[in-house]
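User: For a benchmark we're assembling, each entry needs the component sequences followed by a predicted structure for the full assembly. Here are entry 17's components. Please fill in the structure.
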Amino acid sequence: MKTTDTLTLYGTELRSRLLLGTARYPSPAILMEAVKASGTGLVTVSLRRESAGERAGQGFWSIIRDMGVRVLPNTAGCHSVKEAVTTAHMAREVFGTPWVKLEVIGEDDTLQPDVFALVEAARILGEEGFEVFPYTTEDLIAAERLLEAGCRVLMPWGSPIGSGRGLNNLFGLTALRARFPEVPLIIDAGIGVPSHAAQALELGFDALLINTAVSQAVDPVRMAGAFAQAVAAGREAYRAGPMEPRDMAVPSTPLIGKAFLG
Amino acid sequence: MNIQLNGERRQIAAQDLAAALEELGLAAAVVATAVNGEFVPVSARQATPLTEGDALEVLSPMQGG
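Assistant: Structure for entry 17:
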């Protein structure tokens, strides 16, 4: 067994298997504390229209730069290949990284990825030198196509973004893990509580991206710490090799040598 | 001329993208730009002329999940 247990994405080692989104925190100060408490080395960021008066984006960017973490820009809200590819180009210039969390949304109620457009956008960006982190479903064929398109990491959803429902399709996700044992798989979206996170790591997923579950907690900083512990515990459990579940009871105390008192 | 800046109508005197950002007070900001849906990198801003009715998008870092 390996003695070191680090997560490597596109050749870059990360200090934690917990990736953190930066949206919807009560304040920039709480965001900074939550990032620290989570122990994360990678946070997701986005691009939005800048207004000359407010300059909100400039302030946010200086906070992120000061934290010494890597950034993973997303293409959140994009609904077409063209929109996602253009957003990725803009993000690469602003954030100075070839990494992009590629989202192409196909349906607004579930924010389910449009895997057909996703594959096309991933291929275009891959050819242009981007290192693509595609936000996808647990669909095996979509995963296959994304890997063919040059992706070396996949980000399957647990359940719809912001829903907090945990791992919605355990069978599908387990099949995905089994089908691509060598590909880093990061559960992105739907994690609600630390037990969901521990479960994902126990099943062998490599990492998690969490945002709403932390930022919308009553105490986001405390919740970030709770997730850090759950991720560490889940990963250790996976490495330790969990027992197989059984349908019937098996006594844990040996019966041999038991006194006859009856 | 009239252009759209992030969806809002603005009147500018500048004739190219770099000058327009200067005029709009966005020259010093960390932003990425697109004109009529096409990304324009920093290096191409000066050589990108603007014409009446152009849609200019100026994006900056923002919180994201």
